[in-house]
Every structure is written in structure tokens, then in C-alpha cells.
Amino acid sequence: MKMMFIGATHEVTGSCTYIEACGKKFLVDFGMQQGEDIYENVKIPTAPGNIDFVLLTHAHIDHSGLLPLLAAGGFKGEIHATEATTNLCNVMLRDSAHIQEFEAEWRNRKGKRKGSEEYIPLYTMEDALTAISLFHPHKYDTPAEICEGVTVSFRDAGHLLGSSSIIMTITENGITKKLVFSGDLGNTEQPLIRDPQLIDSADYVLIESTYGSRNHNKPADYVTALADVLQKTFDRGGNVIIPSFAVGRTQEMLYFIRKIKDQKLIKGHDNFPVYVDSPLAIEATDIFISNRESCYDEEAISYVRQGINPITFENLVRAVSSDDSKAINNDNRPKVIISASGMCEAGRVKHHLKHNLWRRECTILFVGYQAGNTLGRSLIEGAKKVRLFGEPINVAAEILQLPGVSGHADSDGLIRWAGAIKGVKKFFVNHGEDAAADGLAERLREELGADVYVPYSGAEFDIAEGVVTVDAQPVLIPKKKRNTSNLNENYSRLLDASQRLAELIRISDGRTNSDMRKLTDAINALCDDWQL
Predict the structure, then answer these.
(1) Are 22 and 33 in contact, with CB atoms under 8 Å apart?
(2) Cys bridge to 216: 166, 188, 410, 513, which one at CB 3.0-4.6 A?
């Protein structure tokens, strides 16, 4: 039994853990890096075609976003996730592929004029559809034997619709160990979805640390705090732009705004319009509604039982087409525009920023975590000018971040969740920037008396023996090479293909002489074509 830490080590995104056990090789999450990549991540130590299955904690792209790349490399196993996560990934992975292809087309159109090298998308829509076809849905708290010796159960993590902590029991050579992967743990008392569900016991626990060194400064009342921002902005004739993650945060904002409208908290701007400008958010909202019975909390369910949809209301406008999106700028009324992406790195929100950032009467309201080296983080940190679509834009709008509106548990919440798990021999802290991961580790040691390890990418752990066998050290990426993941990934895909070819050769002993000659000739022809 071996576990290797691949991604989200001393960083917030790109989650991935590799395990070998019971004769199988599998992953827990395979997420995309978002924002700046500080540390070098090791490659998964086998070709995608050799991975037997994947366990997925939830649908966010920093946990699921490289699954199409895995499929493109030859992975054909099952992807195990909750029912709601399966539904969300059906739209989110397609959306991600669309962004990859659109960016490649845009770059290549510009690059032709400069004679630049062709930009290859990380993966295609076909790759995304292949990955989606491999999903195998599970209900919460229903143990399933994934293969002989490996049983898993998905427990509600309270972070996103369908999000889960994974409880895994591995039995090999008469030794049984229980592992828990926290996934991203949710904040308590979030709208719509349940609080994180506790776990009674485990031998080893991997715990996220996004807010490991900080507690949320919660407003006394989210609805009142949001209403105050809307009122002040509308009174000065401005728009409120909410860069929002299309899945999860958008639906929460709609829930809050419904309450604001029901309680008539906005004076002088009756029936103000709210635009949701994100096709993905619109699809995700429908998925939230269809999964309400299994994922909604009691307050949200109480609306449903009264025949009320808690995330729709009068004068909610869904902008589906690009023409719908452009038309929003022709509406001169003070309004709310909710648009993806949440960190302002892509999507339609960049157009709305271009039209509103320079206007003093407007407000840009952030309601979620902003990773380093993203446009969202730059705005929160006080940038006076930003570049959008190659044009410098003056930042005159009010930039606010609504405190406490976070989908992640804070430091106290993480300690509370961890403290409920009995018999833990070692905690592994990941999914947090340096200070956050180290801060949570220190609290676990001091308050729970825990044995804690904060791995860097490449660290390995012997699950049966309970010892760290490879204590990897950090490898910094030179600044000039950061954010060039597309080029690195394409080379990685080439290496993966070479491993796949090597495996094909290895298992060819026993084929007919004719087949082996054909394979040999094909390999030699390939080498001749590429002048090797």
C-alpha cells in the first residue's frame, strides 16, 4: 500500500493523490492548476492507461479539471463520484473543454499574424465527453466495493452540491487501514446545502487547509450585509458586479437575493433586475434544483415544501447567448450582474468588468476565495489599473469582498471537523498555501496532540507500515516559466504516450510473429518519420 502526493501540496489548486493498493493504481481527484503555480508537481508515476479508477471528491475544476486529459492519454477506468457531482461534471467539463478550444482558437488567430508556434488546447470537447462517459454515480453514505480489497463511501462535505469526503477502507495481505480524504470542507450555515457531516474514525486523514490559518469574519447577517452593498450602489446609480463561481456560489447569491426581495430590504429600487450571465451557471442552477432532495438543507427544503423555488424570483434574467450578454449593457437601470468566472480569469465577467470597473458609482463585489496571481486577487489587493482584452482599464469602482461568504471551512471549522475523528495515527495537510497549511498543522499538533505531516509534491507514504518513505522537498518553478502549463502538459502527454507504447511492447511477448513484425515495422516507420 503506497500513497503519493501529487498536487495541491502547499498550494490551493490542482488536487491529486496517487495510490497503489490491492494490485490497483488509482487517483483521488485530478484537478487543474488555477492561478500561479509556485511549486513543481511531480508526474503521476504511471501512464494514464494504467490507472484503474479515479475517486472524485467534487466537481470544482481544481479537483476534476484534468480528467479529460487523463481520458485523452488512454484512461478507460471508472470515475466514482456522487450523483450530483456526476451531473455537475457533465456540464463543467464540457465548459472547460470549450474554454480550452476557444482560447486555442483565439491565440492561434492572433499568433498567425506574428508567426507564433501553434497553441494546442490542453484537451478537446471529445476528450471531455470521453471522461464524462466514464462516471459512475454513488449515493451518500452507501459503501461500495470498488475492487477486491478497496471499499469507499461518500460523506457530505458541505462545500458544494454533491461534494464529499471520501472514506476508504483498504485490506491487503491481512492488513486493513481506513483513510479519509476530506475533500474541500464547507463552511457552516451556508445557504441551500447541508453543513459538513462528521466522520467517526480513521487511521489516516488528508485534510484541506484553504483557510487553515484564518477564521472568517462573518457578518451578523449575510442577507443584511449584501442588501447594504446593493442599496448604497443603487443609490449612486451604479451596478453591482459579482464575479461568481458558476457552480455553488451563484446559486447561493440567488438564494440571498431572493430573501432580500422577499423582505423588501432595498428601498427606492423596487424589483431591481438581476442578470445571471453564464450558460454554465444556468445549467448548474437547474442541476441544483433537480438534486434538492438529497443535498438541500432544512431551510431550503422548507421553501420547496411550500412550492417555492428558493433560487428564482421575479426579474431574474438568464443571459444564455452572447447577444443576451451584450444586451445587459443596454439596460441603464441599477442592477446586479452575476457572472463567471469567480476569480475573473475567464468568461463573460471580464466583459462586465471592462464596462464597469472605470465607473465610480459601481461596485465589484467578491464573494469567494481569490487565488494568487489572478485578476480577482489583484483587484482585492488594490490594483489601480488592470488590462482587459489588451486594453488598460482604470479601476475607479468600489472593490469589496463580502466577509464570511465562503464555501470553505475556516480554521476553527477544520479543527472541529478533525477533532471528531477518533483513532487518527497521522494527519496529512494539503490544499492550502504555505502559511495556511503550516498554520493548520500547528493547531492540529497543539490542540489535538496529532502527528501531522505537510507534504510537498512527490512525498510518499507506506500505508501499511505508517511511515513516510520519501520526504520530498519543495522545487520552485522559475517565475518566467510559471503559468506555461499548456506547454508542459503537451510534453507530459508525449511522455505518457511513450509509457503506453512501452507497455504495449512489454505485453507483446506471445503474439504471433506476424503481429510482432507489424508492430516493429510501425515503430520503425514512426521513428523514420520523426528522423530518429
Answers:
(1) no
(2) 410
